[in-house]
Amino acid sequence: MPDIRRIGVLLGGTALLIALGVSVSPARPQPVAPDDDPFYSAPSDIAEHAPGSVLNHREISIFGLPIRVSTWHLQYRTTGPEGRPIATVATVIVSATPWPGPGARPLLSYQVAEDSLGTRCAPSFALHGGRDSAVSSTAIETPFIVDALRRGWAVVVPDYQGPESRFLDGVSSGRAVLDGIRAARTFAPAGLSTASPIGAWGYSGGAFATLWAAQLRRAYAPELPIAGVTAGGIPTDLATMARNADGGAQAGLSMLIVLALIRNAPGSELAGLLNDRGRAALSEAAGSCGLDLLTRYSDTHLDEYSKTPELLSQSAFAAAARQQELGDDAPDMPLYLYHSTTDETIPIAGFDTLTQRYCGPKSTVLAHRSPAGGHKATAIVEAPGGMAFMADRFAGAPLTPGCSVS
């Protein structure tokens, strides 16, 4: 059974952070948005730097955290679409709380559910003091980051969608997560080292990036010994997700999925399926956060924006979505996966299929089908289990190989 008092603390912390952001932060100057901030601009010699190299850094303060921390923005080199070198930003947070365990301080890569089409929605901007819809996802997940910091872990929060805000771009997101870990470990002021145990965690959109990083680690960053991965509310079967949301209160999610896939594959036939209204929506959505789209397109149908009926059944959509589905490669580190059996946003069937794909002769997978109820509730109720799994991995606790579903 979950620890109800702990859940209450997390819920209360979330509410407090959101309240503080609304009622107090206006007294603090709004930071410059990433598109207008020279810090985010890639240097002209970026191709000369290896993936994970720190290109620039600055110390920042984070508003509203209940503990003392040291925090930096790191601009680092990663690998974007078509193998292009690109620069993105990670926020590295180190608690004043000493690491009580043996060995080096652990590093947790925490992937916020960015779910956006604009850089003003990036976690680095939110953690620096960005407000309104740009801060919502990050504020909701901040209590989990605080829990990690209280344990003496260091945390790196990457802008894994990159400078083009490529939502649901699995390969680019996974690389950005791995390169963010590389950058944090080599950034001397953070006090980390190659001996620091590494973990990765994300929920919902953050789980998507986390698991893509886990799948890519062996080929892209073999020197990173990731001790364990926690992922919940995992986006799978994008067509079913979009179809499930279409025409209802979350119809903006189906629109976000379609527009993101078009952005990620501009040469695909998917863009050609949009009618004039759909093309206008594509233009208007540039720079939007997920919350913006949920509000704007609530109770609408994708067919209102398409030349042909049943856009989600068209081969062009299926081809674009297939490229981003998880499960083609099983990660080679221990996994703790969890998902609500009554998730109204991402049906449980896709989670079950992904678990089967990840379970192989050499896999170590603990999968939990949560009865907690709902997508958002499960993020909170199941967090203690995910945190305990990560703590055990950092402590070097033994784990029996194999697959277990509970």
Describe the model.
With 406 residues, the chain is α/β, with parallel strands linked by helices. It contains 13 helices and 10 strands. It has helices at residues 4-23, 123-127, 136-150, 170-186, 205-220, 238-245, 251-264, 276-285, 290-296, 315-322, 348-358, 375-381, 383-394, and strands at residues 54-60, 69-79, 85-95, 107-111, 154-158, 198-203, 226-232, 335-340, 364-370, 402-405. The longest helix has 20 residues, at 4-23.
Provide keyphrases for this structure.
single chain, 10-stranded mixed β-sheet, 434 Repressor (Amino-terminal Domain), disordered N terminus, 406 residues, Rossmann fold, alpha/beta, 13 helices, 10 strands
Biggest sheet: strands side by side, in what order?
1-2-3-5-4-6-7-8-9-10
Name the CATH superfamily classification of the largest domain: Alpha/Beta hydrolase fold, catalytic domain
Fold-level CATH name of the largest domain: Rossmann fold
Head-to-tail CA distance between termini: 13 Å
Number of domains: 2
Assign the CATH architecture of the largest domain. 3-Layer(aba) Sandwich
The overall pLDDT, averaged over residues, is 91
Largest sheet: 10 strands, mixed
Question: Cα-atom Rg, whole angstroms?
Answer: 20 Å
Low-confidence stretches: 1-26
Shape: globular
Q: Beta-sheet strand percentage?
A: 15-25%
For the secondary structure, the number of strands is 10
What's the CATH first level of the largest domain? Alpha Beta
Based on helices, strands and strand pairing, what is the structural class?
alpha/beta
Listing every helix as H and every strand as E from the N terminus to the C terminus, the arrangement reads HEEEEHHEHEHEHHHHHEHEHHE
How much helical structure, as a percent, in the residues?
Answer: 25-40%
